[in-house]
Design goal:
alpha+beta; Nucleoside Triphosphate Pyrophosphohydrolase; 15 strands
Length: about 240
């Protein structure tokens, strides 16, 4: 991975700014494996017709300097991303999955996670609301990561930034070939009331992406078997033992 991180950094890093530029680039991996990608997508669609092959953005270079994450992103599609993610043994390119997420804290400091509904990419898994970067997040050749995070927050939970207090900067979880760029949000509501508000929004949606909201108060309550690696790193960093 082309990821220049400060010496001694673990998986979690705080930065003040994100500068994510978009450039034109033909991904050699996509060209080399075009036939296998199409075949794999046909299998995925047969097993899960809900999946949609839309445009997304990945990063080909990343660096952290002067409290700033900089990255050069390129446009690809979901089916290629899915094949790339499923076949790390074939991926010789230094490509990184960069995506935005929300760390939602209740008034008493509990963290609220979403459990993804059946039929989605991470069905049954529990993690902070997040999502891939798509065309709607790109403006004038740059990714508006705050807008991407706010969009996913609203789509998955019904919450909007005006109902929450935003923390400073961003929390990065750099794990494997992923960089999760997260904003910390604080709600004035206690955990149970905040969960009830999100559940009410999920029940009003026709096809909600989440099927439940899980309140986590400490590391002891983390369900490691159902939590993605980047989320585990975040939770162990942010929650008390």
């Amino acid at each position: 991975m082309v990821l220049q991180l400060p010496t001694g950094m673990a998986g979690i890093q705080r930065v003040a700014r994100c500068e994510l530029a978009v450039e034109q680039w033909e991904w050699p991996f996509a060209q080399r494996h075009a036939m296998a990608i199409r075949a794999g997508w046909e299998e995925q669609q047969a097993a899960n017709p809900k999946m949609f092959d839309g445009p997304i953005y990945l990063a080909r270079t990343c660096a952290i300097n002067d409290a700033t994450l900089t990255a050069a992103l390129f446009r690809t599609d979901f089916k290629t991303f899915l094949f790339w993610r499923s076949h790390p043994e074939l991926a010789a390119d230094d490509v990184v999955e960069v995506f935005g997420g929300s760390l939602i804290f209740s008034a008493e400091g509990h963290l609220l996670l979403g459990q993804q509904a059946a039929g989605n990419l991470n069905s049954g898994r529990v993690y902070p609301p997040c999502g891939l970067i798509d065309d709607s997040d790109v403006h004038d050749g740059r990714v508006d990561i705050d807008a991407s995070i706010a969009r996913e927050l609203r789509e998955e939970t019904g919450l909007t930034p005006d109902r929450l207090l935003r923390g400073e900067g961003y929390v990065l979880a750099c794990v494997g070939r992923q960089i999760a760029v997260s904003i910390e949000w604080r709600s004035p509501l206690p955990g149970h009331r905040l969960r009830d508000a999100i559940i009410a929004d999920l029940n009003a949606q026709v096809q909600p992406e989440l099927e439940d909201i899980v309140i986590v108060r400490s590391q002891a309550e983390i369900e490691a078997a159902r939590t993605p690696e980047h989320a585990l790193a975040l939770l162990h960093s942010l929650l008390p033992a």
